[in-house]
Design goal:
Elements: E1 18-22, H1 28-38, E2 42-47, H2 52-60, E3 68-72, H3 78-92, E4 97-100, H4 115-139, E5 152-157, H5 170-185, H6 187-192, E6 195-202, H7 211-219, H8 227-239, E7 247-251, E8 254-257, H9 259-264, H10 266-270, H11 272-287
Parallel strand pairs: 1-2, 1-4, 2-3, 4-5, 5-6, 6-7
Antiparallel strand pairs: 7-8
Helix pairs in contact: 1-8, 3-4, 4-5
Amino acid sequence: MRSIALTNVNLEELKGKTVIVTGVTGGIGGETARTYHNHGSNVVLADLEQMRSFAEAVMASFSEPSRAMFVPVDILDWAQMTSLFRSTKERFGSVNVVVANAGVMESRPVLESNEADENSHLKEPVEAYKLCALLSSTWQKIEPKFRDGSQGSVVLVTSTSGYFGGTGVAAYVSSKHGATGLLRASQGAANKVQIRVNGIAPNFTATRLTENFAKAWYEAGFEHNTLHHGAHVIAQMSVDPSRQGVCCLIAGRILREMEHSRTYLLSEWLGDDLVQFMNNVGGLLAGMGGLPLPKLPALQQEPRRSSRASMNQGSGLRSSGKASM
């Protein structure tokens, strides 16, 4: 068991930094943007155009709204994501931190899903996080942006559902496991360009996507996460130079590191012989510069269409915030 203590992290380093937060309408995203702003950061709120009024209300609550702007973006659209980073640099000069917070949860059981549900729920969160991580790691390679010499920081907002699957919401669990996989798979590329990529995995947090479960949780007397606490942990993880490739599970006052703990337990889980075999395979791949990519013919893509699901704000689709459970 590895507890995380973040109380000594100096958030003063956030002053003057520029932060992009995706998915600002679900509670955690808006509070995260507010936390960065309160510590002196320039903040870019990125979400769908139909979420503009919500984002503008969040910015209006800031003490200095001039240090914030809203950029409408579909996080699945590469051109729009590139435009997001370009607009941010034109306004504030750089991009220092990306918080990939956009997430979804299905509104129907997985066996009742249709094509639109499949495209929106299972593909989108992984692609959204991938775009944020890769763009942040390749956009700027000039002078060091943080005191430890790193060029920038990415925080992926996954969930306890990114490690466990007992909630039964299969699409949400699958997408969050994808985010956890991205956290692990991105470390090699991130290290090469001096980007810190970490994650947080909140347990139950009261947002509009979990409101149907909140009453039962409270009546059971379980401790729950607050938006402020979750946002504060995100901010701390983004500036802590000792954190690279870690994920902090947040369950109220309890903070546990998940990734290094998993590595520590591998021998007990897999056995020494299998761990040694996997390490040997890992060494082979490292010597090859990673797994060679297959040379496949380009697939013909159909034009993207606006689906009923993509516009359904009530089910929390696209980048309209996240639920943590």
